[in-house]
Amino acid sequence: MLKRLLTLEVKIRPLLLIGVLITILLGGGLSAVVYNTVFSGQEDSLTQRISTIGTLLSSLPLQNLHGDPSDKATSTYQSLKQTLIYTHTINSDTRFIYLMGKRDETIFFFADSEPEQNFVEYSQPGQVYTEANPEIKKVFETGAPAVVFYSDRWGNWVSGFAPVYNANHSQVIAVAGMDIDYSEYLRIVFVYTTMPAIVALGFASLLFFLWLLSKREEEMLTVRAQILAIAAHDLRSPIISIKWAAEALSASKDQLSEAGLKKARMIQVTCESVLDSISELLNVAASNNVFAKLKKAQVPLINLINSATDPLSLSLAEFKITLDIKDACRTAQVNVEMDRMRRVFTNLLSNAIKYSKPETTITIDAKRQKDRLVITIQDQGMGIPRGEQSKVFNGYFRASNARDSSIKGNGVGLYYSKRVVEAHGGRMYLESEVDKGTTIFIDLPYKEPVALAATGTVQT
Length: 460
Fold this sequence. Notes:
alpha+beta
């Protein structure tokens, strides 16, 4: 018996050695892959968060600030200060959040998230940032966000910088900054990187690792939703003011030409649509059951398309984009909640216009497939990279080529649209090729048309 055991041990030694080598190679390979993923993921997270803060601060009238201590007496400074303090509160892993200006070649502070009682850490308006990283000036020049590792009098940091634009988004007037302690950053990267070695020893560690990544992604989406909800809430007042002004112009029929009255009415309708979208966005941020009860009615698809394209007519004309609505759309009917589905089509068509090349065509078609109606919106725009197409319907995600372009966006439109379509029992998906365009598919349940009332809809 002993001889047989010794013989068996000799035979399995090479297998044990191979197993050890495979384990080492697998653990090392997984560690390298996860290191790159987590490292780039941390940078992407920081870039997305500071970019969102930059977009939020762009809604403030920063042009009223002078970049000196006299700013402290202004309401704009107080609004800026409170916004920075709030964003610091909901981004608990950060040490500082601040806004910088540039005068000649000198970088200075407008405000930061520190209490004014903290004389050591607090930066006065107009205080020169003598250790300013060169990347800050590049952000002023290029408008591209940046993540850097550097040291100053306050410590060692991993910092994200993002541009803040003026009201018409034509010029970078400030740069927002966010600092994370460097040792804390390395600690996070180290913890995630060493996990694959443990994962190689058992499936339990793998599941725990995936759970942590999922939780971190969920927390990031929650933070972005909160910040975006603040921005949406602050946008209400100026949009309402624009709407009132448009209503006043519309009432001045004897003072405006017919074309002027038409444009005033278009501004009014667009403002109403934006206000509805803001309300919907705030509801989505606050509740997961916002689409639980839909008031659906059977409507002609062409009516839905026309109501969605009316507010976009100026954009279509500006970029000389042709809208080709196929005959199938003029005869098909859909059973939907008109207002919400109209916002879906407005979102999708607005995206198609924004990302299309001038003097191209956007095609809208519909095709019956048994008990389904598949509606397609096809553009000839920049397209979406293949590896990112599965992510564009996630909340607050934008494709890399869209982020690199000068086109603004927040990654909410497709997320919202997909939720609305799914609440109608449908599904949304896409096909895309970079530099050739994107086709969005809206697959909805189909029921045989019923007689339409004079209003064009029948309540179901």
